[in-house]
Specification:
Blueprint lengths: L16 H11 L8 H6 L3 E5 L2 E4 L4 E4 L2 H4 L8 H11 L11 H11 L8 E5 L2 H16 L4 E4 L8 H6 L15 E4 L14 H16 L6 E4 L2 E2 L5 E2 L2 H14 L2 E5 L13 H5 L5 E4 L10 E5 L1 H4 L18 H37 L5 E7 L2 E6 L7 H11 L2 E2 L1 E3 L2 E4 L7 H19 L1
Parallel strand pairs: 3-15, 5-6, 5-7, 7-10, 10-11
Antiparallel strand pairs: 1-2, 2-3, 4-12, 8-9, 11-12, 13-14, 14-17, 16-17
Helix pairs in contact: 4-12, 5-12, 8-9, 12-14, 13-14
């Protein structure tokens, strides 16, 4: 058992021989397409406590990726573990029949959201939530087309992949028809003009959509902070433009908060921090303490409109079952016990220290983020393998972290301490200095 959260404590090289042996053993059975991090790192993680994880060789490492932004509450949380175990001993699953434990989860979740987002569809993953939201949007509006953004990532199922851009789509066509992609302000060609980038980008978007669509879309999908696209916070002004566009056209504004929700950005939901409320909210990842979960939230009018509301048309075999609901209840309690505030406070200080440390570093172009969702963008013109070299250098120093493209992404559990945050900064500085030498 991990008895303390002081880390890193390294007893072998990382990865050590036991980790490499487990990784090699899995390769005999594993399908292609596993995460790049699991493949190159050859790590086998066997235990966790808070923001510390232990590998198969006994090394204690700092988790700066939360198991791909899932373990917001941290590892080894006993309240969640006991809730799952207690429910498992009573009833694990009985389809979507009414359940006291699910009702309690609904009530606790509703208390975190405004009235227009208090009707729920519970599912098994973020990608499934995206798929369901597409059905809901088309059903509620009677329209087919949807709008998404350049550098978006919404998942790998067919509908979600259709909203996504980039290499994930390669070889997967034909994708869902009726999806139109437009740029966000940081990618808009007019970003260097005197006009505010959000204003210029919104004006271009409306003009372009008027040309390529025969009528208003069913929905507009956006991540409040683009994750896989480079940890790009979308300007509040642009989100306000999207809210106005959807209000005028009757389109649904959909916030994909699978990555940003459950306290990650320093508020329970990222939309709270920008003051723009969507029509549909998507969540998953960190909402059930590591238990598979997906969520679509909207108004009763939207979530019960059209053919999707007919019996069995929107049901899910496992979504929101008794085990998932018990995990969700406990996770919400833990998040609301101070972790969301901690994400804001520790994340703010971590972002400040990273900016100070790398303000003039030749390998760093930018540091940005909200709460404990932070990206360190490596300078353009550097070697294409630099991101992986940075990750390897950090792993050798006992910090497990991820990257998307040229951005090193820092997403530790929300229970991260200031001391652990300082270790991440020091390890980042040492790693980048060693590669610049």
């Amino acid at each position: 058992m991990i008895e303390h959260t002081s880390a890193p404590v390294l007893t072998t090289e990382v990865p050590g021989p036991r980790s490499r042996a487990v990784s090699a053993g899995e390769r005999e059975f594993r399908a292609g397409g596993a995460s790049a991090g699991s493949l190159w790192s050859e790590l086998s993680i066997i235990e966790g406590l808070g923001a510390v994880i232990k590998d198969a060789d006994g090394n204690l490492l700092i988790d700066a990726c939360s198991g791909t932004v899932v373990m917001n509450i941290g590892h080894g949380n006993q309240e969640v573990a006991h809730a799952i175990a207690e429910q498992a001993a009573t009833l694990t699953h009985f389809y979507d029949f009414a359940s006291p434990v699910r009702l309690e989860f609904y009530q606790r979740l509703a208390a975190t959201l405004p009235e227009r987002l208090r009707t729920f569809l519970l599912l098994n993953s973020g990608a499934e939530a995206v798929e369901a939201s597409l059905r809901i949007a088309r059903s509620a509006t009677g329209r087919m087309n949807v709008v998404a953004f350049t550098d978006a990532y919404h998942g790998r199922t067919l509908g979600a992949l259709s909203l996504t851009t980039g290499s994930a789509r390669e070889g997967m066509g034909p994708l869902l028809p009726g999806v139109v992609h437009v740029p966000t302000p940081h990618r808009f060609p007019g970003v260097h003009t005197a006009e505010d980038p959000s204003d210029a980008c919104a004006r271009y978007m409306e003009s372009y959509l008027a040309q390529v669509l025969t009528g208003p879309p069913a929905a507009v999908y956006i991540e409040p902070v683009q994750g896989a696209g480079g940890t790009i916070p979308i300007p509040t002004r642009f989100l306000q433009h999207l809210r106005d566009y959807c209000d005028r056209t009757g389109a649904l504004l959909v916030f994909d908060e699978i990555l940003t929700g459950a306290g990650r950005t320093g508020t329970m939901w990222a939309f709270e921090g920008v003051g723009v409320t969507p029509d549909l909210l998507l969540s998953g990842k960190g909402l059930a303490g590591g238990f598979p979960f997906g969520l679509v939230a909207g108004s009763a009018a939207t979530m019960t409109a059209g053919p999707i509301a007919e019996p069995t048309r929107n049901s899910s075999t496992f979504g929101g079952n008794q085990m998932a609901s018990a995990a969700g209840i406990a996770t919400l309690r833990v998040l609301q016990s101070g972790l969301v505030d901690n994400a804001r406070e520790v994340g703010g200080r971590l972002l400040e220290r990273l900016k100070e440390s790398f303000a003039a570093h030749p390998l760093v172009a930018d540091v940005r983020g909200r709460g404990l969702l932070i990206g360190v963008e490596l300078a353009s013109g550097t070697a294409p393998d630099l991101p992986q070299r940075v990750l390897r250098a950090l792993l050798a120093r006992g910090v497990v972290i991820s990257s998307t493209g040229s951005v090193v992404r820092i997403t530790p559990p929300l229970c991260l301490t200031h001391q652990q945050a300082d270790v991440i900064v020091s390890a980042m500085r040492d790693a980048l200095d060693s590669l610049d030498a």
